[in-house]
Each structure stands twice: as C-alpha cells, then as structure tokens.
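Example 4.3 (complexes with small molecules)
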Amino acid sequence: MVTPLKVGVAGLGTVGAALIAQVARQQEALAARCGRAIEIAAVCARSKAKDRGIDLKKVQWFSDPVALARAPGIDVFVELIGGAGDPAKSAVEAALASGKSVVTANKALLAKHGVKLAALAEKHHVALNFEAAVGGAIPIVKTLREGMAGNSFERIYGILNGTCNYILTRMEQDKLPFAECLKEAQRLGYAEADPSFDIEGHDTAQKLAILASLAFGTKVDQSAIYVEGISSIAPADLSAADELGYRVKLLGVAVKTQKGIEQRVHPTMVRKDSAIAQVMGVTNAVTVDAEGINPLTLIGPGAGGAATASAVLSDIGDIARGVRTAPFGRPAALLRSVRKAPMQRHEGGYYIRLLARDKPGTAATIATRLAEQEISLESIVQRHHGRADSDAKAGSVPVILITYATTEDAVRKALAAVGRDRVISGMPQVIRIEKN
Ligand code: HSE
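Answer. The structure with L-homoserine bound is encoded below.
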C-alpha cells in the first residue's frame, strides 16, 4: 500500500485554514487523482488557541517553522508565512536542504531569492512549487512552464492584483472614492498587511518577475521592472477612459522587444471590448501572446483563501504523484540575466490629462510642444466645468489628449516643455495605452 504524503503547513492565516479545510473535504478525490492520500500531519502558527474553524486535533504543533521544515515525519513543507526574509526564507531553505519538497505562495520570497532556491531544490532533487504565488486559482505557472513548454513567448500581460482591480472596479462602477474602496478590499481579506504594497504596484511587480522568468527563461529580477501604482488615478480618468472607449486597469506587462525585455507595471488603458477589460472586482487575468497562439487569456479568482488554497493543493498533488519540474521551467543554471529594455524607449499610445489655463493660445502651445517631439494626436478633448472634472480649478480647463504611438521619452520631454511654458497647473496625468 502506498503511504500517505505527510504535509507540514507553516502559517495558518486565511490561506492555511482554507487549505486544511479543502484537504479534509477533498480527501477521497485527492487520493484517487494522485494515487496516494494526502495528510496534514503538522502545522506551525503563532496561536494554538485561536479558533480557525478547522479540526486540528490530530495534527502535531510546532512553534518554530524551521523545526517543522526539518521534522522527520514530514514529506512536504508548505510555506504560507509570507515575506522575503526570515522566518519564511530560512524555513524554506531548511526544508529543501533536508530533502523535502516545498510548496509556497510566497511571491516576495521567489521574486528576491527564486533563482537560489530553485538551485537548492535541484541540488537536493526535490520540488519547489509555487502556483499560488501568481494569479490565485489561475494555473498560469503550469500553463507557461508545462502547458506551453514548446512555445516561444512574445508578451505576457495581466491583472495580477485583486485589490487594485477591486478598487478600480468599484471606483468606476459605483463612483466611490479610492479610500473607501481600499478599506472594503482590506475588510474582504484581499489586501496585503501593508496595502501600499498592493496599490503602489509592488505586489504586481513580484508576480510579473516570476511570470517573465517562466516565459523568457531569464533570472527572476524584480529590479528590472518599472513600477507605478494606482494611487494617482482620479475619477476623472475613469470617466474620460469610459467616454473614449477604454477602461483603466493596473497591468503587469513583460514584452520581448529588439532592445531587450521590457517589464513594467502601471495603470493602463485597455480597449473596453478586449477580454482583459471585462475582468472586474478581485478577479485576475493573464493574457499570453505566443507565436501562433495569440492571445490566450486565463481569467479567475486571484486572491482570498479558497483561490490560493486551490493552487497550493494542486502543487501538493503534483508532489504526491511524483511529478517534479525545474521550478522556473529550465535548470536554474540555464536562466539568463535579463537584458532590460529602457523604459524611456517604451513605444505606445498615451492618454494625457492636463489642467490647462483657459486663455487663447494654450491649446496651440501644447500642440506645438507635442509636435516638436513628433507626437501625433489621435484626439484632443477640452472639457467644460461641471462635467466629470472635479479637479478642475477656476481659470483652467481639463484637456485630454490621446496620442498615436510614440515614445516615453518624447512624452516626458513634451510635457516638461509644456510645464516650462506655464500653460498648465498641477502635474499632468499620463496613462499608457496597451494594444490588445
Ligand atoms: N494582495 C494580493 C491581491 C493577494 O490583492 O491580489 C494575492 O496575492
């Protein structure tokens, strides 16, 4: 008879509790699908007394995750502690070094130490699985690593942060202020402990770094990513986007260019009729453009206990079946350093919202500065007070420009010149348009 796979779980927050409940509910199906029972044998959490709504009577308790990682009765160590440093890092290292496979949902740890941990897993011939680190329940890691192992990738882009998508959706649909939507997302358990991590784009960047490595065979390198969050997005941008046929989404984009791999996270205008624009609320989506398969979009729940536990359990299932893949799709030693495409050379269309002085010649000055940088305009709209322009000031009018494809450098230079001309007040709002 095959012995059960003994699992040790470190971290009993929303995801850990959902995982244990799901293992209990799916016991028979899991044993049938994996050819082996899966048993939660030990856990590690700060408080033993806390009621988590799960039965932990038969489970061994540890107070030290590293001790759990090394415990002889455990086959698989599941790390749900989070954070790039200790104790998560030392516990994962201890498990791998003692010949145990690891399943983790820890994007921060992988974005910072992914290559070293992959090498350690390979050295000890064990698995390092992290489906839950990106896109919640969406099986995007396996899609890139196994499902599309024979494809050449051109671009990957996605909504990778449920909190931001939830906030943008509520702001757009219910005309609610940013702060109220953020509070709601926190209450629903989507946001990180420090929500600035979500709204300033760093959570998306960590996930993008992992996806880019899987797609392009490069070392995971978060420092190669240009990052902007959503905190500057105003209701005026969402309503202008709507009128122009767009929606605003926080996207993580990794694209192969002649200058190298461009990796960027920023609020993005996407056409309202595209698949990704339909993705609302906490839902995540990833679109893959691969040679001959263009586009492939996966959409699903991206945050919360059940979504993340689903991905963790699928990784445990692979280990129970005896499946082991190089963590980033190829041996760690074959991952190349990222050749980073400079953001100034990014090419695409731009949405620009300016508060322009309401006097003759202003539009001509702006148009001249754009023309000097060879920026061609697809549309220019001057709004009148009283419309969706709550930030309009007396004596100034919001002007919205949509450019044809140009470069980041040209847009920055043109706007700097417009600023020097003193025909606008405040900072211009700039949102990149992604072709989709
Ligand atoms: N804070 C993350 C999000 C959780 O909002 O998507 C899942 O990684």
